[in-house]
Amino acid sequence: MPLVTSGQMAALQGVIESGMTTDVTILSRTETDNAYGDQQTDTWTASGTVKGWLRTVPEGTIDIVSGVQADVAIFRLFVPVGTDINNNDRLLIDGRRYVVTDTNVESTYQTALKCSLRRAE
């Protein structure tokens, strides 16, 4: 007998998805070689837009970033289960760019797909 039935999981996912109100544009990378095959160019193409919930988790520490003291924050993004987001994809959220550093796509019981992000500067 499963820990959570498929009906219960669907209900939990519905509750969480109701809080996803922010537009998230997913940009996927395509690598192309030049005519000589000695140089690659990255092209970022929008592969879709979903609703998500972006959360900032302050670390509470100050680091040196590019020679300047900065409060480093961790960003978490929750999107519907099954969303095609991969590590190193770029995201556009409220005019800011983020890079996906990790997801919980391998987790057994997912109420949402959770992505760890860093801001692309």
Produce a short descriptive summary.
This protein is mainly beta and 121 residues long. It is built from one helix and six strands.
Describe, in plain words, how this protein is organized in 3D:
This protein is mainly beta and 121 residues long. It has a single domain, classed as Beta Barrel (Thrombin, subunit H). 10% of the residues lie in helices and 57% in strands. It is built from one helix and six strands, in the order αββββββ. It has a six-stranded antiparallel β-barrel. A hairpin with a 2-residue loop joins strand 4 and strand 5 (96-103). The longest helix is centred in the first third of the chain and has 12 residues, at 6-17. The radius of gyration is 17 Å and the shape is globular.
Residue stretches low in confidence (pLDDT < 50, at least 5 long) are none
CATH topological fold name: Thrombin, subunit H
| Continuous helix count | 1
Q: For the record, what CATH class applies?
A: Mainly Beta
Share of β-strand residues: over 45%
Under the CATH scheme, the architecture is Beta Barrel
What composes the largest sheet? 6 strands, antiparallel, barrel
**Which series of helices and strands comes N to C?**
HEEEEEE
Q: What number is the mean pLDDT?
A: 86
CATH superfamily: Protein of unknown function DUF3599
**Molecular shape:** globular
Instruction: Please state how the strands of the largest beta sheet are arranged side by side.
Output: 1-2-3-6-5-4
Helix content: under 10%
How many structural domains?
A: 1
Radius of gyration, taken over Cα atoms and rounded to an integer in Å: 17 Å
Annotation, overall tally of beta strands: 6
Decide which structural class fits the backbone: mainly beta
Q: Could you tell me how far the N terminus lies from the C terminus, measured between alpha carbons in angstroms?
A: 48 Å
